[in-house]
Amino acid sequence: MVSRWAAENEVTVVRKHATWFRVGPWPFVGGGHQTVRYLTVRDAQGQERDCWLLLGHFLWGLTDQIRVVWRSR
Question: Which residue in 5, 17, 35, 60 has its CB near the most CB atoms, within 10 A?
Fold first, then answer.
């Protein structure tokens, strides 16, 4: 899912950060049905940005739904 999201948004994943106990901007992640990823990505201009991805749906689990919150550096 992350690779497809990166390709669709024309970014390259530079680093996947550990998210063991962090849920980012989502205080309630759907009880094991959703997954959170924290990434550093690089765009076509070479600029790096950090973002949180919420993969899946609260009720239906890992669907194609991806929510993104960009973090300022």
Answer: 5
